[in-house]
């Protein structure tokens, strides 16, 4: 267990100023009424709604329960590709050849972009096929082309999941095809993946996700995303379905400076998934008021330093510290500074060295990263002696 040093900072309530709530979205053109509400367990056994802007969980229902993600697996395949593109190890314009083996096994199998044997297809086209029409064949062509084999690609997926802290997830395929339970995840893990996808690769996310449809090789297909084009600000992310998994969805929308990510899983039919997804997302935007606690860059405390030229370093908020509270309510808000300390010098200005834990009555606590407000070099000999003397009286 990690040991933290902590300082309770303050409890805040009515003194915080509320930001205006988001405007309601238009009703579904498919005539499904949108009644903002979180789902009951019978409607969605697994459900999660997170505000990425604040880091706060707005609703959680079995968020750590493992389930089969089905085609939501493809979000990890897209993310691994985005990482490789960012590292210049993969280029959107480069093309891979569809082998006879991949064609025979995957073209037209489940969701497909109907690739042809011997066809040269670019990474850009493959990613559009994967993210828009859930192309099983596209995932395998990308995996073999970029990593040399499906097992090598899957190994990259699992290494990436570990790096993101997706400790309750494992991937056995690049596309989520049934593999006897070898692929599983949780809602909390998918929220971590969505955060990384959107915040680390915003341009690639905007290019490849939330598109209404795709035409390839004479086949025009629509995206099954239940919220994009219906919920104001919605832009993805991915649906999933198999008989074993049920109907799942990982989605996101941005409105008035707020970015929400939702997960629902284990739903019985597609129409119910659509209703639950739209209602939960709309509820997230309409049922809460935003209260700004600290702006980005505000000094919120200090941490003790070991073997440094200074014995403490001021800490500032790496991003705005925000609380989302139920509309018309004034719950108690408390905060504490948490870090593993004392922090060993040298410390670079801007390095994340602590967290601010925010606790709102009725909600799970969440953290905002804190960074060093100044550089602290290592102590010289005389500074070490002085620090040792001061430590005797601390």
Overview of this protein structure:
There is one protein chain. This protein is an alpha+beta fold and 394 residues long. The chain folds into two domains: 114 residues, Peptidoglycan synthesis regulatory factor (PBP3), Domain 2 (Sandwich); 241 residues, DD-peptidase/beta-lactamase superfamily (Beta-lactamase). The chain is 27% helix and 30% strand. It contains nine helices and 19 strands. The strands form five sheets. The chain has a seven-stranded mixed sheet, with no helix packed on it. The longest helix is centred in the last third of the chain and has 17 residues. It is globular. The chain starts with a strand and ends with a helix. The N terminus is likely disordered.
Query: How do the SSEs run, as a string of H and E?
Result: EEEEHEHEHHHHHEEEEEHEEEEEEEEH
CATH topological fold name of the largest domain: Beta-lactamase
Describe the main β-sheet briefly: 7 strands, mixed
Instruction: Give the fraction of residues assigned to helices.
Output: 25-40%
**Structural domain count:** 2
User: Which structural class fits the helix and strand makeup?
Assistant: alpha+beta
- Please give the radius of gyration in angstroms: 24 Å
The beta-strand count equals 19
CATH class group of the largest domain: Alpha Beta
Biggest sheet strand line-up: 1-16-18-19-14-13-17
CATH architecture designation of the largest domain: 3-Layer(aba) Sandwich
Give the DSSP E fraction (strand runs of 2 or more residues): 25-35%
Q: What number is the mean pLDDT?
A: 90
Fourth-level CATH superfamily of the largest domain: DD-peptidase/beta-lactamase superfamily
What oligomeric state do the depicted chains represent? single chain
Compute the separation of the termini in Å. 26 Å
Unreliable residue runs: 1-29
Shape: globular
| Count of DSSP H/I helices | 9
């Amino acid at each position: 267990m990690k040991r933290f040093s902590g300082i309770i900072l303050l409890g805040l309530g009515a003194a915080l100023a509320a930001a205006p709530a988001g405007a309601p979205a238009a009703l579904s053109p498919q005539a499904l009424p949108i009644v903002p509400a979180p789902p009951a367990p019978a409607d969605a056994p697994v459900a999660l709604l997170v505000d990425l802007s604040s880091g706060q969980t707005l609703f959680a229902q079995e968020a750590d329960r493992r389930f089969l993600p089905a085609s939501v697996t493809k979000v990890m395949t897209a993310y691994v590709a985005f990482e490789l593109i960012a590292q210049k190890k993969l280029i959107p314009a480069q093309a891979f050849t569809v082998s006879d083996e991949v064609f025979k096994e995957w073209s037209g199998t489940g969701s497909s972009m109907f690739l042809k044997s011997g066809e040269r297809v670019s990474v850009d086209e493959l990613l559009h096929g994967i993210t828009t029409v859930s192309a099983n064949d596209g995932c395998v062509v990308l995996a073999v082309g970029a990593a040399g084999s499906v097992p090598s690609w899957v190994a990259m997926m699992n290494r990436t999941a570990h790096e993101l802290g997706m400790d309750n997830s494992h991937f056995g395929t690049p596309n989520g095809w049934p593999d006897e339970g070898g692929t599983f995840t949780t809602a909390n893990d998918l929220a971590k993946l969505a955060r990384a996808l959107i915040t680390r690769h915003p341009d690639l996310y905007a290019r490849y996700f939330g598109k209404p449809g795709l035409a390839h090789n004479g086949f025009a297909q629509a995206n099954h995303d239940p919220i994009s084009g219906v919920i104001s600000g919605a832009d993805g992310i991915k649906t999933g379905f198999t008989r074993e998994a049920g109907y799942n969805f990982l989605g996101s929308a941005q409105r008035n400076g707020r970015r929400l990510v939702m997960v629902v899983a284990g739903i019985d039919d597609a129409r119910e998934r659509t209703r639950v997804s739209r209602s939960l997302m709309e509820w997230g935007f309409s049922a809460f008021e935003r209260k700004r606690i600290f702006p980005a860059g505000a000094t919120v405390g200090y941490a003790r330093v070991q073997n440094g030229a200074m014995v403490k370093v001021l800490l500032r908020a790496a991003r705005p510290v925000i609380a989302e509270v139920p509309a018309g309510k004034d719950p108690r808000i408390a905060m504490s500074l948490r870090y593993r300390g004392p922090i060993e010098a040298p410390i670079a200005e801007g390095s994340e060295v602590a967290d601010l834990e925010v606790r709102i009555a009725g909600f799970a606590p969440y953290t905002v990263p804190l960074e060093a407000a100044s550089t602290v070099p290592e102590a010289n000999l005389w500074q070490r002696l002085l620090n040792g003397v001061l430590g005797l009286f601390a």
